[in-house]
Amino acid sequence: MTARSISLADVPALLAGAEFFSTSAAGEGIEFVGVWLEDILAHTGPVQLVTVDELDPDALCVAVGLLGSPVPMSELPPSGDEPEMIARSLAGRLGSPPAAVMALNAANVNALLPVAAAAVLGLPLIDCDGMGRVFPLIHQTTYELAGLPLTPLATVSTGHDLTLLETSSARAERIARSLVRAAGGWLLCGIYPGPAGRLREAAIHGSMSRLIDVGQVLRAHAPSTMRARELGDVSPWPAFAAPSATPPQDPDSDGPPPGPQAAHRLTNAPAERLLRALSEATGARTVGSGRVVEVGPSVGQAVYPGNPINTVVHDQDSGRLIRLEAYTELLLALTDGALTAAVPDLICLLDKGTLRMTGPERLTAGDQVSVLCVPAAPVWRTAAGLALAGPRAFGYSLRHPCEEGR
User: What is the spatial distance between Cα 130 and Cα 194, in angstroms, rounded to a whole number?
Assistant: First the structure.
């Protein structure tokens, strides 16, 4: 990322970072949005990235994000006029046009869409967001915790159906979800309109910069230095070769090939280097690493949008079983039945073969993965934060590990 801006050259790192902070929910559709964003930036030029303190305290700021799924967005693509329609709708209701754009959540496609909206509107993008990850509901935000009104909420569909909602946060969620189904699977929304001065206490600051920094770490540790994008591949990841069945051997050694333990260390060395780099960049800790032994539906009741999925990883070092519970996003990690990581902290999966972030819906038995836990923003570990987005908010009768001793 160049100083104070996001340019066309930053899109691959933006995509990689968006996958990392998606808590393993990113999949099909995100690369389409990346191509769309590239086309926009190629025409508009870079987007200015600013802090809240650089704006007038009374400047109107609007969060932009997707409601629904990026998969139908790739099938029913946006025209590019949607951000202008949202801005006009909110300006008509509030009496002034937006002066800056911010992210609803700097993860998955919602890390890309605010950049596109800022570029189309010719506005600066605020280096902040309201989640620091992915949550399923639009009111599970630090904006909500700080009392920033969610509405008026402007939405626009692929058919340019424009709506403006003014109601409570919870009711806005229910109405908007019904609109998503009627609109074909996705809506672009302008949400949490308010003055920049209120964002000082309401937002998670530095989110967009952090996301791109992490994306650069991921791309720097990819298995090949050849950039797939330079060969016309739209993937944010460099090309990689399939792992060799023969363990690598030290070229300076005249001895026989390494034994099983040494070979294990050699073949896992790239993944271990990446894990250390991610730990330095995000504060992540490794819950465990090993082979996926089970992927299937969870016995838990679906209380939020998404598919309950249960994944079990056999940790190669301890021999313990790590069970991961997800509603699209990973929510819990239990090691031999003991809770070791939980929402609102981020639980991520790294594919050790490709060194790319992955998720339960893209895994099969036998895949080698590392389970990471990234600490959430401190506000999420408060009593109010845990009530809105902790384990109990998702229907689990469990206390977050940070609550032990309270």
Answer: 13
